[in-house]
TrEMBL record:
It is a multi-pass membrane protein. It comes from Mucilaginibacter glaciei. Keywords: Cell outer membrane, Ion transport, Iron, Iron transport, Membrane, Receptor, Signal, TonB box, Transmembrane, Transmembrane beta strand, Transport. It is found in: Cell outer membrane. Belongs to the TonB-dependent receptor family. GO terms for molecular function: siderophore uptake transmembrane transporter activity. This is TonB-dependent receptor. Residues 544-563 are annotated as: Disordered. InterPro entries: Beta-barrel_TonB, Beta-barrel_TonB_sf, CarboxyPept-like_regulatory, Plug_dom, Plug_dom_sf, TonB-dep_rcpt-like, TonB_rcpt_CS. It holds the Pfam family TonB_dep_Rec_b-barrel. It comes from the Bacteria.
Amino acid sequence: MASAQFTISGKVTNQSGEALAGATVTLVNPLVNTQTDVNGNYQLTNLPAATYIIKASYIGYQVTSTSIRLAGNQVVNVSLTNAMFSAEEVTVTATRAGKNSPTAFANLNKKDLEKNNFGQDLPFLLTQTPSVVVTSDAGAGVGYTGIRIRGSDATRVNVTINGIPYNDSESQGSYFVDLPDIASSINNIQIQRGVGTSTNGAGAFGGSINIQTTTRRDTGYADINNSAGSFGTVKNTINLGTGLMGGHFSVDGRLSRIRSDGYIDHASSQLKSFFVSGAYYGKNSTLRANIFSGYERTNQAWNGIPDYIIGDNNIPNHRTYNDLGTLPDGSYYKDQVDDYLQNHYQLLYDQKLSDKVSFSGALHYTKGKGYYEEYKTNAAVAEYGLTPVTIGGTTITNTDLARRRWLDNDFYGVTYALKYLPTSALNFTLGGAYNQYTGAHFGNIIYTKQSAGIGPNYEYYRDDAKKNDFNIFARGEYKLGDVTLFADMQYRRIYYSFLGFDRNLKNVQQNATLNFFNPKAGITYEIDEHNNVYASFAVGNHEPNRDDYTNSTPDSRPKPENLKDFEAGYRISNNIFKGGINGFYMLYKNQLILTGSLNDVGAQIRNNVDNSYRAGVEVDGKVRITKAISWGATATLSTNKIKNYSQFLNNYDDGTQAEIFLKKTTIAFSPSFTASSEISITPIKGGEIAFIDRYVSSQYLDNTMNTNPAAFPVAAGNRFVTNRQLDSYLVTDIRLRYNFSVRSVKNIGVGLLLNNIFNQQYEANGATYPDIEGGRVVNYNYYFPQAGRNFLASVSLSF
């Protein structure tokens, strides 16, 4: 008679009773591995009666071992204790806020990202966090996208990947289109609002996004995910991993492809990426090598759509019109594209030196190269450094041509952090980075309708730049009873070499050196283990960007920006409700803003405004209403003002500039109210229905609040209107998901994302170029319409 077979089952939780999904449960003899499900449950079946040792492990927690004598089906629940040292957490925690940090932040784990990842760009997966507004050039979230936090654009939002800066060193923006489907390789994200903690890279003015990529998974896996939907959107992703081999090694990989025609005409995207990570785990150390790459080829849609087109319902494609690349005969230039490849190499090392000291360090290198190509009709050859030529008696001064503007850049450096915990009540972190950037900017003419004396790939400009960025910071936390004191100091030094105008208006290589000191201090009072209140003060400094330097002389060059950030709030976290309220006051000195004025080289660049501020209240929370229903919501109410502001309009009637002076005005692209809501219902095991809402109040396209000088009346109709703003919008989505398993497949997931179900017609971004013509103000407004009702469906398989 066969021996009886039994089952060991149970649940793995942390000390707070929260389920740990993806924890590894191992039988030591014989060696059998399994992982907990989304509810922290596990099951080991077909076991004969015997004595077993069960080990449970999870990143960030101490391994727990339990010995049992199995003589029948048995339930073994395991509670894991936080580890003093977690090798793969050291790198990112050096620049992260903890649960008692006196700053505003939100954490998203892998599960949060996976449920929304249907192929849209990363910013669209962050829309349910406080004070975030996103937009898409192509209108459907694939291709070029933008993000603002508290009204601050991406150039003021610091992004790091495993503690390594991602923002472009010169423009300071973050282009997630260059890393398609990076969300499928992310383990967790922290979004900080305001100055936050010290970080590497450009100073955080609006906020920071701290990304940690794939970490250890102890069992092997293979995941296949496919999505498809409106506008010809298709995403294919394969994830593979070996699990822990020989107790020391693991290899993980991902391959992705995304294609979309876009909602906007001629706004298609062809995106490819891969991610490979190999790690060695020692007793007290981890060495991980990451190689990941992204390639994007997107048709240009970055100019927006003129307001008079959008407002004319008689035009069939009035909301999707895009004339970039349209030739004189009405055909379309198919290579009106942005084409860019970016490769990343990271070597991450974490070491526990003693029970009190740990170290993390990283070497990194990023290589980017690409261009944007455009067709120019009737271009003046003199503007390309050429002398008009005479052919057959005809002097060619203008010709149709196609040009490519290239960026070939290298970014490399080192980051480090040393953590010292002398007692349970005191800890210190010493960290920093040294990074170097070189960028070659150059342009080629690749085609001319008439020869005009231009040879193949004629180079008509070149501009080489170099930027060194060094920072060092020290942070300490001291716990005194229920009170924790925080102090954080950072020194940052920047050297930038660029081609720009000197005082004699000659274009020569120049350089600038900046030194910043960014102190921070705060206090947190723990009311009990579930509630705390906090307050903090932080200083941030931010350098001008590439255009600020290259389009000015030393006499007109703008100053760096300075921010003093005051934050105070209350947080609560228990099994039923988690949330908080945060108040902020961000006082800017010399904030850089486009005012329309011209500098001494005739360029319209950003100018410093002496006094401006953002003040508001943020609320976020998630409540578990019943076992099957939960509701999460955020809301931000703010006022965003500039004091004593001057806007300048070009007067084309007499060649002068007209000034508009406002004693107090609202900062552009700063809605006074934003909110989000997500109601999640689990009607059956493995199933979910989520109702998702986002609201953004009206916002201005410039800093005048639509004010025009009284001396220049505005005519009605078409362009001649006073409106220079984005209207408010409320968008509702529905997300459906169902997960189940069969014998040979660990998980089968099907999903459906119904976007903008009420078909709201709205614009999330825009631009305005007002001037004076014929004694009146003329507004040239351009908007970026977002897609109406659309859908994305997905099927995933996990083995």
